[in-house]
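User: My collaborator sent over this chain with a note saying "see what the structure looks like." That's all I know about it. Can you take a look?
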Amino acid sequence: MKNGTMFGTLDRYMEKTFWQENSDISFTTVAEERKYEVFAALETRILYREESGYCYYEQAGDLTKTAFEELVQWLADNALYDTGITPEYGEQIVILSTCSYHEENGRFIIAARRVDSEE
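Assistant: Without extra context I'll predict from the sequence alone. Here is the result:
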């Protein structure tokens, strides 16, 4: 993390100018390379069990249309800046998260939608 080889540099997306120059990310698996477009960057935190609130980290897999729209809306409402990008239901979203020290249990996350064709 500290040498920047994992998610140590993820927080550079706090700055809109960094996003403007690095809006596309890719993942390479043994089978393929996947391309994504970052549409949200935000600071948040992990909630305690007794707290109410939206838990982005509990959203995984195939979401219902309502759950997908709630996630996208939460991301947009809490984003540090407007990217002008709104994923549509059916698009694959990936969220990358790293520790952040802006508050206890803090996290910095980026969300990106898949832009290459899925098979």
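A starting point for your reply to your collaborator: The longest helix spans residues 65-78.
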